[in-house]
Structures are given as C-alpha cells and as structure tokens.
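Box S1 | Example of a co-folding query
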Amino acid sequence: EGEGGGGEEYLFKIVVIGDSAVGKSNLLSRFARDEFDHNSKATIGVEFQTQVVELDGKEVKAQVWDTAGQERFRAVTSAYYRGAVGALIVYDITRKATFENTKRWLEELNIHCDTAVAKMLVGNKSDLEEIREVSVEEGKSLAEEEGLFFIETSALESTNVMKAFEIVIRAIYDKVS
Ligand code: GDP
Ligand code: MG
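Box S1 (continued) | Returned holo structure for magnesium ion
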C-alpha cells in the first residue's frame, strides 16, 4: 500500500566522533546490521552508511559518517562535519581519558557545525562493567552541563545502539518536520 502523502523525504547527516578505539565503527556497523539487514560492508575506508528509518509514515534517511581512522591523527576535516545535523560523541567507559577528550570533540563540533545539531554523548563498552573508569553519573552530569542527550551502549552486546541513533534521528526530525 502506498503511503501517499506529500512526498516528503528527509536526509540527515549524522557524524560519529570520539577518540580512536572507543567503538565508533562498531556502533555504526551494529546500527546497520541490526535494523536493516544490509549487506554489511567493512566500514574501513567507507565514508558513510545510509540507513532508512520510517518516522510518522515518512521516509528518513540517516546518513551516518565514520571517521575511518582519521581521528588517530587529529585529521578529521571540515568536510567530515559539513552539513551534519546530528552527532554521536563517543567515549569508552573503561578509559577515562577518552571521556575527558569528549570536551575537545565537542569544541571541534561546535566550531564546524551549527549549534542546533542534535548531540548524543555515548559511553560505549558498557559490557565491561568490571573495568569501568567512568561512572554513569559522570556521563550524565557532563551531558547535562553541555546540553546533550546521554546513553551508555555496548556495540558488542548490542545494548542501546539502536536507541542511541533513534533518539538523535527523532530529535532532528522533530526540529525540521
Ligand atoms: P573506533 O576506532 O572508535 O572506530 O573503534 P572500533 O569500532 O574499531 O573498536 C575498537 C575496539 O574496541 C575493537 O577491538 C572493538 O572490538 C572494541 N569494541 C568496540 N565496541 C565495543 C563494545 O561495546 N564492547 C567491547 N567489549 N569492545 C568493543
Ligand atoms: Mg573506526
């Protein structure tokens, strides 16, 4: 059955940023695999993956960008950020330094993007509770300070990964629709 409707179509560019090895690429591939059963390509060297989500009967394309390792050399370019309307700022709950660096990533994001970008602070690797270095409270309070959504995820166990992306996509959608 056709949806009819006004033929509206949305394309949202979402960037995933954060230190090396926090799990950015795995979050993206988990997002891709779980919901749409895409032919899962290696994310290495791939600039972005596009996923189609349906919201209120409308087709929303989430174009999610992966840094493909540039973050290791602090070489994430303006092109990467250009046109982004959503961002996941990721740290690893088992490495405090990656949490502290989210402030740096946020500054960089704010330099390159409009303040209206929907931002989610993501504490990844929640499955590694026994070697946790960043508490849930610390994550929450930073997010509150900076006006970000907050979630802890495990790309490994597939915990909250869809939810992280969905919250961001929904927030963008609510702004533009
Ligand atoms: P990126 O450099 O930020 O893109 O990080 P990757 O996605 O390449 O992941 C870096 C390392 O962390 C890899 O060894 C992954 O297997 C591991 N990793 C990623 N996500 C998780 C997670 O949720 N839990 C655990 N235990 N390991 C993870
Ligand atoms: Mg990566």
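Residues 34 and 162 are 8 Å apart (CA to CA). The longest helix spans residues 161-176.
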